[in-house]
Amino acid sequence: MAKKIISAIVAGCLVGGLMFNPAAFAEERSAVIATKPSSVDGDLAKAKFPLDQAIAKAKDTFTISNDYERFESGFNTYGERAEWHLNWTRSAEPRGNISVRVNAATGEIFGMDRWEELPPGQKYSGLPRYSYDESAKFAKEWIQKLLPAYAGQIKLVSNQDQPFYGFGDRGPVEYYYNFNRVANGIVFPGNNIYIRISGDTGELLGFGLNWDEKTSFPSAAGRISPTEAEKVIGQNIELVYYRPWTNGAKDTPVKLVYRVKKGANLMVDAFTGKVVEGQLYEGYDRAMGGEAKKESASRNEMTPAEQAEVDKIKNLLSAEKAMDKVKNIVSVPAELKLMESRLNQDYQYPEQKQWTFHWNNEKNTTDVQSISAAVNAVTGELVYYNIWKKGFDERKTAAPAVSVEQARQKAEDFIKKQQPKRLAEIKLDNSLNSDYLEKGITRNYHFSYLRVVNGIPFTNNGFEIEVDGNTGEITNYQMNWWDVKFPDKSQEIGHAKASSIFLSGGGLGLEYINTDRGANQPKVNLVYRLKDRPSYLLDAKSGQYLNTRGDVIAPKETTDFTDISGHPGAEAIKQLAKANIVKAADGKFYPDRNITKIEALEMLVASRGWYVSGPYDLLKEGKDKEEEKKRLLNAAVSLGIIQPDDTKDLAKELTRLELAKLMINTLDYDGVAKLAQIYTLPTRDAQLVPDQLRGYAALSLGLGLQTDNQGNYVPNENVSRGHAAISLVRMLKVQK
Predict the structure, then answer these.
(1) Rounded to two decimals, what is the model's pTM?
(2) 11 pLDDT exceeds 80?
């Protein structure tokens, strides 16, 4: 068994290869290609499993045909690991490539990836042959065949989003599966098996093993209870002000929210009950984006917004005065050359203009290499400062000369000097210095302070400051402080309710994680962490989950319906659900309810592989629903399902003839359907179908999308959602 096996999977490949079939492995293998290794990066003496046997095993396992005319091999050793890299290429069309990695000590195959072009004339359309769940069975069978020693130590990661590629000339459907390692009954995401299966053929497209046999796992005995961990989680949920960032928006209101500190990175040590320290990645605290783009309505006349901008500029400091403000605060060596000065704005708060300057040491005559600084273009306050000196990169192991307490004092002294009144309006949010202290690294200490308003932290505002661990010098400083209005805290749900919401649903999970906790500390730690959260922000008044834009997150959708059992359309509904075409937030499909125009458009657009975020009818009222309706209708028009003038009466219940027209349009057969004179409608009630729509009805019957009713077409009969699902599945099976 290899001590450490790591495989990299190349995703985004075209479908190809052999569908999993046990009988296929009994076929006689092709002749072994005796090829000398073309690339050697290791000690061949470690290859106890020779190249010819590695080739033979790969060809036996994956049935690699002789039309792959080019073969190359490589041999690498990494510490105790030795492996063969085998690569077959077919240059003639349809082109293809297969790469296999073999343990050169044991002969185990621990990595494979393949792609093949489709043969001329072959294409994919409609539903894939196998669903995600059905293909998962193939994935497990391959793991049992290829990696039997690991098959009992893994767990499939659930809730993986598997998109459907849509009707028409689509690409191949590929399913991706990630099986995490399990030790002592506890998941360890640091090790895993990754596998790809074709949804069209059931073939294995690739797999890889990431596994470290040397990893030791602490026993779970003696851990704190989930209840104790929940208390710690609750202590790290706080009420804060939060202002979402939207590109170009200047009037975005501040929201009152509950947040989980550290977000997804909040982990509780299962033995000590303490929060695991480390770098925070709270994207909702510091939004990313670019500066607002301004467009002019006229080349010669200024809009009111443009005039307001001009008026603002009149009141700003000049570049010279702004420079003087900087030099009164920051010492800039004479040897440094001014490389840039610009007037810009805070991308998160465009109302604030600032002058930014950058100096660089071109002649390398002093320790200072560069300095950047920015001041508020109205008040002259320092908003940003950074200095870079020689030797910053080299200092890695010497003991710090400045303690963390001393560094914090220097940071707060600097803030007090720049903003004496605001020092009382901030609190230390986090100090990312534990790694430095444990490892003895003398890089900068980092401190983050949040602005506090009405006793509530405002996550977007405050100070970021760094202190040199050798000299105590301030090396980086940034202030965000905006003139915005804050909502009152009346009627907020309270900390206990917010904690209950965060802890409900997925609750707490127990898992092993890789940590770097310093010398003489175990590499793997056991932690509790929140599972399956829609986000780590809650509206403090409604208790609803919010995304980073501050929008309410819709209820989690499901494709497991509780109201379709026994319905004639049950199987069709399940097929559409597996293809991610239909879904629900309440677990119901309502198969007996008549389908409306908007509901049919939603399904048909999704059947073409276009993303639809619905279900539309479950969206909240107001701006969000109108925007979603607009996106859906635009997609339907772009796909030719409806015409631009056919976007009204969306709540209308559809008849059989109206649904037929939409499906024929979805198939792109509308052009031929309009040639009404070439069609005969073989039903007793053919006279009920208008002449201009006869082709739609005839094609719908001829293609099997709909069936007659005792010899009648019944064009004006309403269609239930369940029977519409049956027709939709039939439509998806039409071969163009």
Answers:
(1) 0.72
(2) no
